[in-house]
Each structure stands twice: as C-alpha cells, then as structure tokens.
From TrEMBL:
Biased composition (Polar residues): 1-14
Native species: Streptomyces macrosporus
Classification via InterPro entries: DNA_methylase_N6_adenine_CS, N5-glutamine_MTase, SAM-dependent_MTases_sf, Small_mtfrase_dom
Designated name of the protein: Class I SAM-dependent methyltransferase
Assigned keywords, A-Z: Methyltransferase, Transferase
Amino acid sequence: MSTIHWTTGDTQQSARRHSENAAPLPRRTVVADDRMKAGDAYRRACEGTALLWQGDFHNARQLLQAMSRRIDRKTPRPSTSLSESFHLHRRSSSHRARVLGKLLVLLDDDYRLALRRAPDVRQACLEAYGPPKGPMAVSLRELLGVIGAHQWRSKGVDVPALGTRIHPHYGVFAPVRGEYVDLVAHTPLPPAALHSPDTSTAFDLGTGTGVLAAVLARRGINRVAATDISPRALACAGENAHRLAPTDRIEVSGPGLFPEGRADLIVCNPPWLPARPTSPVEQGVHDPDSTMLHGFLTGLSAHLRPGGEGWLVLSDLAERLGLRTRRQLLDAIHAAHLRVVDKIDTKPRHPRSKDVADPLHTARSAEITSLWRLTA
C-alpha cells in the first residue's frame, strides 16, 4: 500500500493506493471525469500522471478502451527472431500495463464504488483483497480483472477429466488449457502406486487451483499432498479439494514446494517460461531463472519412494522462444541424478495457438506440451 494525493476544489485529499503488480506511485494525481478526452488522458498517463475518475463508470471503461487503441497504434519494429519477438511483446505488455494503470477509481471503506452506473463490486473485491481496511484507490484495469475473476470463480472452469468444474480464485492461474490436465489424467500410474493402492501417496507441487490433485485423487491415489507458495492458491486449492475430493484424500499445505515424507508419484507443472512475472497471475506462467523447475528436479530423488516416479509437465514454448534449450533441460535432469523413463507429448488446443495476430503465433502453433516420466 502507498498513498496518493489530489485536490478537489480547494480541498486536499488522499487515499491508499493498491496495486497488485506493485506499480510505482504516479508523479501526481488529478481528478478526471466525463469531459476528459482520450488523447489528453493518454498523454497524461504516458507522462506519469494518474487520473482519478469521478464520472460515469461506463464512460471510464470506454476511455480505457480508447487509450488502449492508442497504444495499439504504436507499431513495434519488425523482429528478426522469435526470441526478440518475445522480448518486444513483454516490453509492449509492460508499457500497456503502466499506461492503462494510471486510470484510477476510488473504493469506499466497504469496497463500494460510488460512480454513476457502477456495478456492485463489493463481493468481488472482498474475494480478491480480503476484509476492507478503509478507502482504497485501484486502477480501473485491475478492478475489471477483479470483477472478471469473481465471475470465473462463480461460474467455474469446466474440466472434462474431472467431469465437473474447478473454481479459480483471483490471482490463481485457471486450468483453461486442458491438454496438461489430460496428460496427468491418462498417463499410466507408476507400479509403486498400483501395487499398494490403499497406501499410495502422491505430491502435487505448485497445485494452483488444485486441479491436478483432484485428478490424482479421482484416479484412486489414497493420499494427495498439494503444496504451493501462494496463499491465494492454497485457499483456492483447499476450497476445491473440499468440494471434489472423495473422503478428504487431498491435504493442502504451504507455503513451500515439497511436503514432508516420500511419495509414489510426484507431479509438478511449473511455470513454463523462465522470465519475471509482472502480476500475481503471471506467476503461473513465468518462473525467473526456472527456479521452481530446478527446485523440483534437485529435490525429487529425496522424496520418491522406491519404484516411484516424478512427472514433470512442461511445454517446449521456452525452447521455441530461445529462452531455454533442450540440452539445458536434459543437463538439469542428469545433474539431479534422474533418468527419463518416457516422454508423452500432446499438441495445444487453446485458442491462442490459432491466433495469427498473436506476435508469438509461430511458436505457439508449434508448441508441444510433454509429460516427462522421471525416476531416481
């Protein structure tokens, strides 16, 4: 939390400013309303000025869209490689977040949004931010994400492998890409788990919504220990496990990577891109220096029971973007004294793989997601 200051008439006012991506404080804050033109708003935002909106809610959304279109007009220079395309895309996304994040709205001390034609956002904010602690300014872009997350949480995400829905929380990566879930749902279980089904144990590292833990429990694993470093993910996984797991087979714990003890099966679906996340939800996709990947590999042998397997679910998108090589991955597996038993591949089915307008379309359309079966 930090504080912004602005003037209304002759009155100096202030409020706490909350930013999920830890955006720096604006240079100054001015009041904006329905008279604000998109060009003026865009120019001020680029200069570092925050616009505290006090007009109509729907007009604020339209202004945000108009500012976004002005960003889109800035055509990036042609790239010579997929790696350069990725870095240009990240730079453009960062610029977009920085500029659009300057349009702010003020939430009252009960999360009420006192704007004309504003929706009731109290429940959505309570789910995302927890109990209110007084008035708070947030970017309209972030608030729209909070509203969208509330809708996702209420509706849920259909998971065919479970025959039901998973309900993601705000800031927790939703299982919208079913191919990695299907890999875990259909790969044969290791002999160690099959021989002793009544005592079989699995770990789901970086559980997120708990979807893979639920799949393993549905497959007959007697006990599934699910971990994560995110408090939001732990709460989300715990809620989904309580609703989905038969006879409370799933135990959620953390923050941390490995739980105590050993398991017949240890599953890890780490973030696929070795890059710095710029928001909480990006932590499900970006892993600086492949920290979680290496943590899983180096700790796997010490936590496997005899005859057990580690399942690494990983996309080759990082390789196609020049962020990691296959040799580096294999060297890391070898350095951890692990052996590759098998590798099961699947192609992407998500819409972005078919979006030719995506600057990373060439890599996404050829992407392969693999389940690597590893033993000590």
